[in-house]
């Protein structure tokens, strides 16, 4: 769980918070936890996700444990700016799927005094930094990297290993398609192939 004393989370000041890590690392749960606490503080919260992420639901952000919160699916980062008027806190899930314009959009929103909380995969299945995530980490006021448990050895996992043969960077999936692995196990699995 994140240390809210460090974050001074209900301060009504513009800032950018990034929650990154591999699949199953708890990014969405941490995002939902922060957004719900902002709602308890009676702050106006808007939540966005990329329209392509239809895994569990078209209109909700849903964690692997099926915790959910209503969200607005958007096609392009510019829609986030257009649909954010009046918001005090903005949540964005699956940020890796957005276009690079998301970096400027988030900077612009934070400059207007809005708290922007972003969750996304830091790396794809090849361990390549994913979409706008490196740029978002660079401009963030606060970055936390969360970790899943390696399904082979039980250590902390950094990587999302793809189990199926598909070379495209974007491929929606769950436990049938991906597993979280630590560095040692990721390299072992790769060398077995
Ligand atoms: N190998 C694993 N390590 C940790 N959590 C896992 C694992 N496999 C499944 N989970 C579940 O996934 C949940 C995290 O889901 P979620 O917040 O949606 O993660 P993320 O958004 O990072 O993919 C955990 O609370 C746990 O119940
Ligand atoms: C590694 C990797 C993942 N994806 C997809 C698979 C899932 O649909 C999402 C990640 O969801 P999570 O909330 O972080 O579990 O991204 C992908 O398209 N490409 C990849 O390389
Ligand atoms: Zn391992």
UniProtKB/TrEMBL annotation:
Major location category of this protein: cytoplasm
Binding site for Zn(2+): 150, 153, 182, 185
Annotated InterPro entries: P-loop_NTPase, Thymidine_kinase, Thymidine_kinase_CS
Catalytic activity as recorded in UniProt: thymidine + ATP = dTMP + ADP + H(+)
Domain of life: Bacteria
Molecular function in Gene Ontology: ATP binding; thymidine kinase activity; zinc ion binding
Pfam families linked to this entry: TK
Binding of ATP, residues: 21-28, 93-96
UniProt enzyme class: transferase
Localisation per UniProt entry: Cytoplasm
GO cellular component terms given for this protein: cytosol
Name of protein: Thymidine kinase
Upper lineage: Bacteria, Pseudomonadati, Bacteroidota, Bacteroidia, Bacteroidales
